[in-house]
Specification:
Elements lengths: L4 E3 L2 E3 L8 E7 L9 E8 L3 E8 L4 H21 L5 E6 L4 H12 L7 E2 L20 H16 L8 H8 L1 E4 L2 E4 L6 H16 L4 H8 L13 E2 L3
Parallel strand pairs: 3-6, 6-7, 8-10
Antiparallel strand pairs: 1-2, 2-5, 3-4, 4-5, 8-9
Helix pairs in contact: 1-2, 3-5
Length: 231
């Protein structure tokens, strides 16, 4: 769909429901013209895409401020409509994500509406805990599989044309997934972060738990997987 409203580089596809829960995920980038920084906003438990932001010339500090501004808009718009939407935000903390965590700390979490969501500490986890979500090969494969299943069974509503374009060029490569050569996958990466956030929230919210654990109908034929040899 075409966005019904744009705020700077942020495209909004759906108005705020004052009684809904919102997930806001930032996949940061260097901001020097290469990879894009991307923010996705999803409404829960409907798992509907509400907004997205993507830019490749915005430094990390400004990316985090965009994240904060989006959270503030959700809060203010919800209150204007007589409600108080729940907001959860997070960032990928790999490499550049460390810089994003420092910016969030400097700005003060108390100035971000909502709750900063992090992956739970697992038993036997010996690495120093950092807020946000750390992406590994294992977590990426699991999230990709869940994304595929949710799209096939219409459990996720995507509205963005750029997002759809990235999905069409997001292919299997070896034992993992990535964008075709010359393409970008930053919007996809931020949606994968949304899925991981929703899985954490599923332990707290029975409606989200039901959405994230619905079985795949056997009536749906699986989507094809395109394999890239890298040649």
């Amino acid at each position: 769909e075409e966005p019904y409203m744009t705020m700077g580089q942020t495209r909004w596809y759906k108005d705020i429901d004052p009684n809904a829960t919102y997930l806001v995920a930032l996949d940061p980038s260097l901001g020097t013209g290469g990879d894009y920084g991307a923010i996705q906003v999803f409404e829960m438990p409907s798992m509907t895409q509400v907004a997205e932001w993507r830019h490749n010339l915005t430094p990390v500090q400004a990316q985090v401020k965009h994240l904060r501004d989006i959270c503030k808009y959700i809060e203010n718009r919800g209150q204007e409509k007589g409600g108080n939407p729940q907001i959860y935000y997070s960032v990928e903390n790999n490499t550049l994500g460390e810089a994003a965590l420092i910016v969030i700390s400097d700005l003060g979490e108390e100035n971000f509406p909502g709750l900063f969501l992090s992956e739970p500490i697992r038993k036997g986890h010996i690495r120093k805990f950092r807020k946000g979500f750390n992406t590994t090969h294992r977590t990426k494969i699991a999230s990709c599989s869940q994304l595929k299943n949710m799209i096939e069974t219409n459990k996720m509503m995507l509205k963005s044309k750029p997002m759809i374009s990235e999905l069409k060029n997001y292919v299997a490569s070896g034992i993992g997934f990535k964008a075709k050569v010359g393409e970008h996958d930053d919007l996809v990466s931020s949606v994968l972060l949304i899925i991981r956030m929703a899985n954490v929230l599923a332990d707290w919210d029975p409606h989200i738990y039901e959405k994230m654990t619905e079985k795949i109908s056997e009536e749906h034929m699986p989507m094809p997987i395109f394999v890239s040899t890298g040649l």
